[in-house]
Every structure is written in C-alpha cells, then in structure tokens.
Amino acid sequence: MLLVQQISKHEVLLVAYFIIVVVVLVFLFILFFYTFQRRKNKLLIEKVVAQKEYESALVQAENEIQEATLKNVGMELHDNVGQLLSVAKMQLRSGLSLLPDDKKETFKEALETVDLSLTEVRQLSKIVNSEVLANMDLQAAIQVEIDRLNRFSHTNSTLTVTGEPIFIEEREKIIIFRIVQECCSNVIKHAEAQHLVINISYEEKHLHIMIKDDGIGYNTHDNKLGSGLINMQRRAEMIHAQLVAHSKQGHGTEITLTYQPSPK
C-alpha cells in the first residue's frame, strides 16, 4: 500500500513537472512571438516613416526648385520682357504721329495690343515670383490669379471671402497659393467649365478653401488625371493640411483644402 502511494506521488510529481514545462514552453513561445511581432511592426513603421520622410523631402526639393525657377522667370518677365514691351510701346507712340489718318486706326490697335501684353506680363511676373507673393496676403494673390484667368479664358472665375483673415507663414502661404493655382489651371485646361468659384472661409484657427467648377468632371482614379491630385495632396501634407477632391463625370469637380496654422 505504501509502495502504491509512493508511485502515485511520483506520477503526480511527473505530471506537475510536465505541466510546468509545457506552461513555460508556451510562455516562452508567446514571449518569442510577441517580441518577433513587435520587432516586425517596429521595422514596418520605421520603413513607412522613412518612406514618408523621403517623399516629403522629395516634394520639398521639387517645390524649392520650382519656386527658384519661377522666381527667375518672374524677374526675366519683369526686367527684360517688360522693358522690351515698354520700349516697343514708346516707339509705336512716336511713330503714330507720322502716319496718315487712314493708317492710324490699325496702328492704334497694335499699340493697344502691346499695352495689354505689357499689363499681362507685369501681372504674370507677380504671381510667379514667390518673393512678390510673400508680400501679398493670400486673398489678394488669388484675386490677381482670378483676374488673369478672366482676361484670357472663357471660364467666368469668381472669388468670395468670409471671415477675418488669420496669420499664415510665408512659406505655407505660397504653398497654399500654388495648390489653388494648379487647381485653377487644371479647370481651364481640362474641365471645359463655364464657371469657376473659389471660396475662402476664415475661422478662428482654420482656413477652408473650396474650389468648384461646373465642368465635365473626371474619374478621380484615373492615373493620368489623378497624378496631379496626388501632387497637390503631397504639397498639402507638407503644411499639415488636408486636400479632398469630389468629382463625377458630367457634374463638375469640388476640391476642398483645410489648413490649420501650426501653434507658436
């Protein structure tokens, strides 16, 4: 009887040891799996962050190159092309008095064309030069662009503003303007719209810009057209803004930009 009890105790101890070993092995397996998954997730997060940082740096570099190029173009327009047109305008005026009356009307039309070209060059030099834009408030810069679009396109463009303007850093203001400018350019080039409406809405700590047209619309998943949208969204991400596009073929397009200045 005593032997049986000793054997039973021995079996109980073996079972207990076996259970402990199994529990320890399961615990070690769970710990290993958890550590492995945590390490894997960390590497994936680091990869995503690195990719985001690379894309952000790439967009920023592209933006800086574009701004430098536009600055040079703006200076070239203002200093060289503008001066040449001014000289041409003076020469035409000087020659006007030497012409017979029956030729003056045609000459006056040419003079008006040169005068209009000079005005257009001066306005264009403003909106392509980031240094000039930095000295303008956002709605004034957009109004210059709206006026320019109305002069040479068949689309009737209007700007409405509500609320009190908020402070926007120069760099971020220029990026917002370039996004609006690209939206307007896309409407003129592709939308076949009759009307383009831009609404700037200032709130206490937010800026909302809505750009809406009554054009043909497009498929936002179209790779060719969607690349422009992706580029604008990447620009918006640089200043922690959100850009959303809603479009339906035959029903126009609406793009909204929501921006909140960084706290000081």
From TrEMBL:
Domain Signal transduction histidine kinase subgroup 3 dimerisation and phosphoacceptor as annotated: residue spans: 74-126
Enzyme Commission numbers on file: 2.7.13.3
CDD domains: HATPase_UhpB-NarQ-NarX-like
Keyword Flavoprotein belongs to the record: no
UniProt GO molecular function: ATP binding; phosphorelay sensor kinase activity; protein dimerization activity
Record's keyword terms, sorted: ATP-binding, Coiled coil, Kinase, Membrane, Nucleotide-binding, Phosphoprotein, Transferase, Transmembrane, Transmembrane helix, Two-component regulatory system
Protein name, entry field: histidine kinase
Native organism: Dokdonia pacifica
